[in-house]
Amino acid sequence: MLSPLSPIVHIAGARPNFPKAAPVIAALTARCIPQVLVHTGQHYDEQLSEVFLRQLGLPEPDVNLGVGSGSHAQQTAAVMVGLEPLLRDLDPALVVVYGDVNSTLAASLVAAKLLVPVAHVEAGLRSFDVTMPEEINRRLTDQLCELLFVTSPEAIGYLAREGVDVGRIHFVGNPMIDTLLANLHRFDAEAARRSLGLPERYAVATLHRPSNVDSPESAADLVHALHEIADEVDLVIPLHPRGRAVLEEVGLRRHPRIHVQDPVGYVEFISLVRGAVVVLTDSGGVQEETTVLGVPCLTMRPNTERPITITHGTNQLVTTGELVRVFKKVLQGAGKEERQVPPLWDGRAGPRIAGVIVEWLEQRANKEAHLRDLELFSTGSAPISKIAQDRGDGVPGR
Ligand code: UD1
Ligand code: UDP
Q1: pTM of the entire predicted model
Q2: Residue nearest atom 4 of ligand 1, based on CA coordinates
Q3: What is the structure's pLDDT at 205?
Q4: Do 40 and 78 reside in the same domain of the chain?
Q5: 206 CB less than 6 Å from ligand 2?
Q6: Contact 345 CB / ligand 2 (< 6 Å)
Q7: In 3-state terms, the chain is what percent helix, strand and coil (to 5)?
Q8: CA 300 to CA 340: how far, in whole Å?
């Protein structure tokens, strides 16, 4: 019933997209749905891109747009310009976008204007902080989507308040957690610790939010706090390229117990996280992963679009000024004793998403077949669209 010529096109481009896309692609593959994977090239370093494809068993991307880095406008525009002719050629049944990066919004805009339906995986997250570029990407993407897959119940209310038809919203759980649970057996904390020569007690930090790493002033305050933390425990920092120059300029490495690394692969990273006494981060995904692993997480941000990691998980928000004090409390065991895994973070989000998509494709195909029948019935011979075409009238869009 589904046209084999109309694939589902997945758009991924930045590090956090890959662990979200992997279980969705796998679940659709299991249902024999034709798919195309487009890598926008937003991230291009081996350790931010290729290593994820390899470790998560993703297919080699069918196309890489190679957009690279640039300002927001340059990067968003480059994805749009690269994607438009490709989507025209592919004529997808559905485009699937992930998360909140520039590639996500760019792809949604192109698809929506070509009247190609869009599905958003991880819809409805809100930090209500418009100084975050991701918040703009999230809000606009959600306005353009036909199918909205949410990871957390509060997202349903946020979307409804923004006027999204609730019939389009599907609470399916968290595909990033599917990836985490599917790979649990590969996360060897002890091996990761030894390979970096770390003592038994260590902490992990990741940093890449513009508000923390772009200005030397904020970066210097943060580095000062991280040095105080390293007075207590060894601190390993697989450092995102975004902040490297500024953080090093303000002296990040000038402490013997701070171990700055290049970003590490997914398996190595989660292995390190699993064995850490505390994780310090400004990442979105890491807040979720620590919640499921039960590792205390201090999020160095004033807000989070993932409040369920605070209400159910191990996460706490901290300002730079509070960081050392809160860290010491957590180290003394004053973290949360009670922890619940958020609802539906059970490793089955990918199959749920695939189920909704397949049903949606079938309903759409049935509707189209029904319309074709009606056209034949009403004209007795040729479809209305064909008659209109022959007469030179405008042919109705899809
Ligand atoms: C992007 C996302 C952010 C996400 C993060 C995940 C946007 C607006 N931001 O931020 O939401 O949390 O990815 O990691 O989409 N660079 C490299 N090598 C690379 C890629 C980038 O060196 O492979 C450097 C470049 O100097 C670049 C800078 O990192 O200018 C920032 O990259 P960019 O993709 O613009 O944003 P991120 O900070 O990575
Ligand atoms: N991650 C990784 N190696 C690292 C740092 C992070 O594999 O050195 C993984 C992490 O486990 C999570 C994803 O990258 O799955 C999160 O990406 P990031 O923090 O860059 O983006 P965000 O989630 O903030 O958008």
Answers
A1: 0.94
A2: 101
A3: 98
A4: yes
A5: yes
A6: no
A7: 50, 15, 40
A8: 22
pLDDT of 380 over the 70 cut: no
Indicate if 208 belongs to the active site.
yes
pLDDT digits (tens, 9 = 90+) for 276-295: 999 999 999 999 999 999 99
Q: Is residue 347 within 8 Å of residue 181, measured between CB atoms? A: yes
Nearest to 136 by CA among 109, 164, 171, 165: 109
Query: Could you give the CA distance from residue 239 to residue 100 in angstroms, rounded to a whole number?
Result: 21
Q: Are residues 147 and 251 located together in one domain of the fold?
A: no
Specify the ligand 2 atom closest to the Cα of 52: 7
In 138-251, which ranges are E strands?
147-150, 169-171, 202-206, 234-238
Interval between CA 16 and ligand 2 midpoint (Å): 6
How many structural domains are present in the chain? Answer: 2
Ligand with the closest atom to the CA of 206: 2
Residue 391 lies inside a defined structural domain of this protein: no
> How high is the mean pLDDT of the chain?
94
**Closest Cα to atom 35, ligand 1: which residue?**
69
Residue 299 tokens, joined: 């999020």
pLDDT tops 60 at residue 398: no
pLDDT at 397: 35
Domain-located, residue 62: yes
Residue range 51-81, pLDDT digits in tens: 999 999 999 999 999 999 999 999 999 999 9
247 belongs to a structural domain: yes
